[in-house]
Write a structure and sequence with these properties.
308 residues; mainly beta; four-stranded antiparallel β-sheet
């Protein structure tokens, strides 16, 4: 009887898992001729995993990849470890290895404290995680345990400067030259609303772009890739934009930037709420969408390459 139960459990788990091909590009390729597209879509998958450790794989807000290790973050305060093979320019053998709740130094959990975890990036062999509501950046180990708080720019410490509690630090990134960088989803209320600002602990860089910042990742020593999103009422139209910002080519605080992709659902792109971004190789990146826990939305994972 136990053997039969275990077999049924395994079959149910397999049926609940879904990593299937997904076509994100417009069906009419000619319609792309007028688009500003300087990326090549290499692969796209729709994801669905069964619960692991009682935790749903849902509402994914960011990704972090290093040395063949892929982590995903839920804005509900959950960290996931995945296994994936990207060696052939495809998303192969993707499996969910573990699901964990973010924990403080005493290993206890608090929904109030850790909900709204939004951005994530590797810092050596640990993970930087940025938050909304209580706008901050903290450092975690790979087992989801908090190590320490990270000092951020003083301009980001004043909660009253944010447009709203839900327009906080959606993104975080790191390299040795610039250190930890982050950005509010929309400009602070005392900033020019036409420009986004990226913050390190002591410096700022601004660039002009439409949409809300949902992800940041270093391309190389000086260039940052920014993931931005826009959506109309009831998400009848979605726009996902990728902008390259050169932090080493700025004048009067405004940096050189270039749109390398402007994907608009009204042009036939099959988009969802893309929030997460991570580098997986030279000029290669993954982005992932947040399904908002909704039956009507999907968790999409897309592998692409910048070909500018």
């Amino acid at each position: 009887m136990l053997k039969i139960f275990l077999i049924l459990l395994l079959i149910t788990s397999i049926l609940e898992s879904k990593v299937v091909d997904y076509k994100i590009t417009p069906s009419n390729l000619k319609s792309q001729s007028h688009m500003n597209i300087k990326i090549k879509i290499l692969d796209a998958k729709e994801l669905k995993f069964p619960k692991k450790n009682g935790i749903e794989f849902s509402e994914i807000s960011d990704l972090a990849y290093k040395d063949f290790r892929l982590f995903a973050l839920s804005d509900r305060g959950f960290l996931y470890r995945l296994s994936v093979d990207l060696s052939h320019g495809k998303i192969d053998n993707l499996t969910l290895v573990n699901s964990m709740s973010l924990k403080d130094k005493k290993r206890s959990t608090s929904d109030k404290e850790y909900k709204d975890s939004e951005g994530m990036a590797f810092f050596e062999n640990d993970l930087l995680i940025s938050f909304e509501k209580k706008h901050r950046v903290d450092l975690y180990d790979l087992n989801a345990k908090k190590i320490d708080s990270v000092k951020i720019n003083k301009s980001l410490e004043n909660l009253s400067k944010y447009v709203s509690a839900n327009k906080g630090l959606e993104s975080v990134a790191y390299n040795e030259k610039y250190g930890v960088i982050t950005a509010p989803e929309v400009p602070l209320i005392n900033k020019n609303s036409k420009f986004h600002t990226i913050y390190s602990k002591d410096k700022t860089w601004s660039f002009k772009a439409d949409g809300s910042i949902s992800g940041l990742e270093f391309i190389n020593k000086n260039e940052v890739l920014a993931l931005l999103r826009q959506e109309s009422f009831l998400a009848l139209r979605r726009v996902t934009t990728l902008v390259v910002v050169n932090l080493n080519d700025c004048k009067n605080g405004k940096c050189k930037s270039e749109v390398v992709a402007n994907m608009d659902s009204s042009d036939g792109w099959r988009l969802d709420n893309f929030e997460g971004l991570t580098k997986v190789g030279k000029n290669r990146f993954l982005i992932i969408s947040d399904d908002n826990g909704s039956f009507f939305q999907k968790t999409l994972l897309v592998l692409f390459e910048i070909v500018k």
